[in-house]
Amino acid sequence: MKRITCTLLATCFVLLAGNKLKAQNEDLLKLVKEDTVKKEWASGAFKSSRVINGQSMELIGKGVLDVRILHRFGLVSNGAKEFFGLDQASMRMGFDYGLGTNLTIGVGRSTLNKELDAFFKYRPVRQGSGDGGFPFSIVWVSGVTVFTIPWVDTTRKNYFSSRIAYYNEIIIGRKFSNAFSLQVSPVMVHRNMVTNGDDKNNTWALGIGARLKLTKRTAFVVDYHPILSGREPGTKDPLSVGFDIETGGHVFQLHFSNSTGMNEKAFLTGTTSDFWKGDIRFGFNLSRVFQVGKKH
Amino acid sequence: MNFGIKKLLAGLCFIVTTTSLTAQDKYFTKSGSIHFTSKGAIETIQAGHRSITCVLDSKTGALQFAVLMKGFEFKKALMQEHFNENYVESDKYPKAEFRGQIVNNSEINYTTDGTYNAHVKGKLTLHGQTKEVEADGKITVKNGKLLANADFTIQMSDYNISIPKLVKENMSNTVSINVNCALEPLKS
């Protein structure tokens, strides 16, 4: 019996002492159970919605207007008399708008061939971490281009439909870490009219885009589109390397490339310079975003 | 006799344990809110958070907050991305914490409805840096629940949050913070 009493007494003291100790210096936050890790979306795999020429796995966000001014210059190898190509400029002005978090539409006009283009970009699958997070993003892009320069050959019957080309692209990309992102994007361009009778209407390419972040606001980017089939005779695989520089709402993409085209049809079927022979041009993309609509 | 002592002790034990379990001296919330504003010459940065955790021990006056940095919502999507990626580096430092004390805790009567001034002192950990902060706030006791709110300012540079030179002129280093929490008794 005495033993039981002793045990009870001891228990009493332990409980009392325990309570006292607890009140001294405890971690109050531990008393509240933390919520389980919520699903988190990956964001900022690329600084811009374009790697350089090609579309990136990033969308601009709901209610965001992205005004894009793109320039491609002449060959650097033209030397000082052409100011290393800067005397010749080709440009595209574009407006992208985020209809939803996962849907962007855009229009643009390039000086090259006086070409208009329009596209939509939809992300059915977004990379995320935590519960139900998917390891990569899948983005679907489809667009149409119309060149508006006068017909060269006016003696034949020219159809408006001949001015039109389409492109379809699937981007599969992953932000591996804060510093490194990689995407592959099979893309098909269909031209209603080609230069010569035996040229292929369909051109297939595999886009490869990568980003390596150098500092918080600068990154090194590579954009490569090897042509897999249906190559337009005389054209080369477009390759661009450059830097992304971000300052608040602006992103500057400065790069060297062998292509002049600034829409998918133009750079996949019209890149005639050979990067490896030093036929390189300087170019830049300037992007400025405005939050014009509601985010939610 | 022996039996009587045992009964008494058992009773004592019961009292000790139950009082320590039922005493309502801790209050908490998981849905407190924080708003911050930083008014620069050109750019005003504003964001809100509606799920911060706060625990208050009314006996000791100990007060602690935990804030998940990714929970801040901005009007501009890009601003939110930059906040997380470039300024507070949420992947590296996912949480901000405050651990402190209501200095004048004895002046607050947690059992009587009313509004009391509270002076809070403590350590704020943000972006991996810990600094002392002080704030004046109010605690309103109503029907056994508490409403706590406070305003204070911090300097971004105190927490190693740097503003790039290009936009330094546009932005302010000072951030005004407003905290608002409705606390309920914590049942352990």
Give the SSE map:
The complex is a heterodimer of chains A (296) and B (188).
Chain A: H1 2-24, E1 40-41, E2 64-75, E3 89-100, E4 103-110, E5 115-125, E6 128-129, E7 137-147, E8 164-175, E9 180-191, E10 202-213, E11 218-224, E12 227-229, E13 239-247, E14 250-257, H2 264-269, E15 281-291
Antiparallel strand pairs in A: 1-6, 2-3, 2-15, 3-4, 4-5, 5-7, 7-8, 8-9, 9-10, 10-11, 10-12, 11-13, 13-14, 14-15
Chain B: H1 2-22, E1 26-39, E2 44-57, E3 62-68, E4 73-74, H2 77-87, E5 95-102, E6 114-126, E7 129-142, E8 145-155, E9 174-185
Antiparallel strand pairs in B: 1-2, 1-9, 2-3, 2-4, 3-5, 5-6, 6-7, 7-8, 8-9
Tally the beta strands of chain B.
9
Span of the ends, CA to CA of chain B: 37 Å
Class per helix and strand makeup of chain A: mainly beta
Beginning-to-end CA distance, first to last residue of chain A: 70 Å
Q: What oligomeric state best describes the polypeptide chains here? A: heterodimer
Annotated CATH architecture of chain A: Beta Barrel
CATH topology of chain A: Porin
Any idea of the CATH topology of chain B?
Answer: Lipocalin
Write out the strand line-up for the largest beta sheet of chain B, numbering strands in chain order. Answer: 1-2-3-5-6-7-8-9
Largest interface: A-B, 38 and 44 residues
Domain tally of chain B: 1
Shape of chain B: elongated
Can you give a write-up of this model?
- The complex is a heterodimer of chains A (296) and B (188).
- Chain A has one domain: monomeric porin ompg (Porin).
- In chain A, 10% of the residues lie in helices and 45% in strands.
- Chain A is built from two helices and 15 strands.
- Chain A has helices at residues 2-24, 264-269, and strands at 40-41, 64-75, 89-100, 103-110, 115-125, 128-129, 137-147, 164-175, 180-191, 202-213, 218-224, 227-229, 239-247, 250-257, 281-291.
- In chain A, the strands form two sheets. Chain A has a twelve-stranded antiparallel β-barrel with strand order 2-3-4-5-7-8-9-10-11-13-14-15. A two-stranded antiparallel sheet of chain A has the order 1-6.
- In chain A, β8 (164-175) and β9 (180-191) form a beta hairpin.
- With 188 residues, chain B is α+β, with helices and mostly antiparallel strands.
- Chain B has one domain: Lipocalin.
